[in-house]
Design goal:
mainly alpha
Length: 124
C-alpha cells in the first residue's frame, strides 16, 4: 500500500506543477520554431528551459527520497540539527540548480543583441 500512496503523492505533485511544466514545454516549442532565425540563441534557450524542466522533476524526487535517508523518526538522527542540516543542504542544491538553469536561459535571451536594440537587419 505504501508504494501506491507514494505514486499518488507524486502524481498530485506533478499535477500541481503542470502549469509550469506545460509553459516550459510551450516555450521550448516556440524556441524550436525560431531555430532557423537564431540557431545559437534557440539552442541556449532550449537548454535553459530543459534544465528548468528537469530541475522540477528531479527535485520532486530528491525532496521526497533524500530526507528519510538521514532522518529516521524516533532515533538519534531525528534531531532538530539533523533536520536543519538536511534542509539547508537540499535548499542550497535546489537554489544552485535553479540559478544555473536561469543563467543559461538568460544567456540565451541576451546573446547576439545589437547595440541599437534590434536584432533585425536594417534595410539599405
Amino acid at each position: 500500500m505504501e508504494s501506491s500512496s507514494k505514486l499518488i503523492q507524486y502524481f498530485w505533485t506533478l499535477v500541481e506543477q503542470l502549469p509550469s511544466l506545460l509553459t516550459l514545454v510551450g516555450c521550448i516549442i516556440f524556441a524550436i520554431t525560431r531555430w532557423k532565425r537564431q540557431p545559437k540563441v534557440s539552442l541556449t534557450i532550449i537548454a535553459g528551459l530543459a534544465l528548468l524542466f528537469f530541475h522540477a522533476l528531479v527535485f520532486l524526487l530528491i525532496f521526497d527520497l533524500v530526507p528519510p535517508l538521514f532522518i529516521k523518526p524516533g532515533t538519534v538522527e531525528d534531531t532538530t540539527s539533523v533536520r536543519q542540516t538536511v534542509s539547508l543542504v537540499l535548499g542550497i542544491l535546489f537554489n544552485t540548480g535553479l540559478a544555473v538553469a536561469f543563467a543559461v536561459l538568460l544567456a540565451g535571451v541576451f546573446m547576439q543583441r545589437t547595440p541599437g536594440g534590434s536584432n533585425e537587419p536594417q534595410p539599405g
